[in-house]
Amino acid sequence: MEQYTENYCWVQNTYFLPLHDYIPHNYAERENRQIGYYQWVPFVLALEALLFYVPTIVWRLLSWQSGIHVQSLVQMACDSRLLDLESRNRALQTIATNVEEALHVKHQVMSGNRLKLLNLIICTRSSGAAVTFLYISVKILYTVNIVGQIFLLNTFLGNRSKWYGLQVLNDLMNGREWEESGHFPRVTLCDFEVKVR
């Protein structure tokens, strides 16, 4: 019977009341205090992890179009720290050659083009603006992602306050524990009917 009760309450949601409050007889008041997010926490956290990874995927998929494979060069530079002096010098020479060749190609395109200004404005591989534009776009995507996830969490937690995190910090600074405030309570109540024969 206990397992059935726990499973039922898990599916039907629970509600929070401070420890010394009386249980209200009005079901509408109980529904206003319902907490329906505990069973969804793992799924929401997994979704948030995926959303935080999206800008990284965008960067990795598109950064190679600059003519310089940034990720490979950075990895090669990091790995060169572990090599002996001669191997390190060869690795650094390879990195320098790759960057120099990419810059040389860009310089030839830029000096041979009468529309230099247009070539700078348009984000093409040869102008060098593509990587800069992509980098700034990915940083903006990170920022939009963070702000969006704050609103997602606020909606998920069903909080009336737009600044939920600040409200929790304010409660903690004023000595109001989470058990009293109802933020992630450890003890909740659940209503269900029992038929006795």
Automatic annotation (TrEMBL):
Membrane spanning residue stretches: 40-62, 140-157
InterPro entries per record: Innexin (IPR000990)
GO biological process annotation, one example: monoatomic ion transmembrane transport
Entry keyword Glycosyltransferase: no
Membrane topology recorded in Swiss-Prot or TrEMBL: Multi-pass membrane protein
Top-level taxonomic group: Eukaryota
Annotated compartments: Cell junction, Gap junction; Cell membrane
Family: Belongs to the pannexin family.
PANTHER family, per database record: INNEXIN, INNEXIN UNC-9
Protein name: Innexin
Natural source organism: Angiostrongylus cantonensis
